Amino acid sequence: MATPFHDVAFGERLSFQNVVSHRTKCHYTEMAAQFDEFVSRVEATGCEPVGPLFYSLNNVPMDEMVDIETFLPIRQGTFPRHEDFLFHSYVDVSPLLRGIVKGEFEEQTEAVYAQLLATLEANDLEINSPFYHVFQKDPSPFVLVYVGYVDPDQSAP
Q1: Over its length of 157 residues, how does the chain's per-residue pLDDT go in tens digits?
Q2: Alpha-carbon distances of 75 from 15, 79, 88, rounded to whole Å
Q3: Paired residues of 145 in beta bridges
Q4: What are the Cα distances from residue 114, in Å, to 21, 110, 135, 145?
Q5: Interatomic CA distance for residues 151 and 1, integer angstroms
Q6: How many of the other CB atoms lie within 10 Å of CB of 130?
Q7: How far is it, in rounded angstroms, from Cα 107 to Cα 13?
Q8: Which of 63, 72, 97, 150 fits 126 for a cystine, CB–CB 3.0-4.6 Å?
């Protein structure tokens, strides 16, 4: 498989144990506040985050409203029952195509989406997941963006 873009890579995977998630709909300008609130609420249960915060974008936000599911790996192997959260023993998504958003997130994300979609199209691959955005644990000038695809080598004959 080939890509004309320097920062695009095939065969990536998101794989974490003990993950808490929460799905919500909000205006895209409220996403940062939603992430902060989510982390605070998880920590308020006594759980310790150990991995990067990441989220899936589950719609095309034509009206500026986003449908997102936010994920956070935690140290604990269990999570208190909670009506707003789900606990996953494992989250494993693959194969993924990865791009990197550098600089201004809002402006550059669309360009990375376009690169990922163009790469899939150039390789005659079918998209099969939402876009995932992975933030680094430390303040970083980049965000990793992933999208799943159907790997023809893994398909049944």
Answers
A1: 777 777 899 999 999 999 999 999 999 999 999 999 999 999 999 999 999 999 999 998 889 999 999 999 999 999 988 889 999 999 999 999 999 998 787 788 889 999 999 999 999 999 999 999 998 767 667 899 999 999 777 655 5
A2: 15, 10, 13
A3: 99, 133
A4: 27, 6, 20, 11
A5: 10
A6: 18
A7: 25
A8: 150
The residue among 151, 110, 157 whose CA lies nearest residue 12 is 151
Neighbour tally for 43: CB within 10 Å: 13
Instruction: Retrieve residue 69's tokens.
Output: 């599911």
| pTM of the complete model | 0.90
For 135, other C-beta atoms within 10 Å of its C-beta total 16
Per-residue pLDDT at 87: 96
Q: Which uninterrupted H or E stretch holds 145?
A: strand 142-149
Residue of 110, 105, 90 lying closest to 14 (CA atoms)? 90
DSSP helix, strand, coil percent of the chain (3-state; round to 5): 20, 45, 35
CB 131 within 8 A of CB 54: no
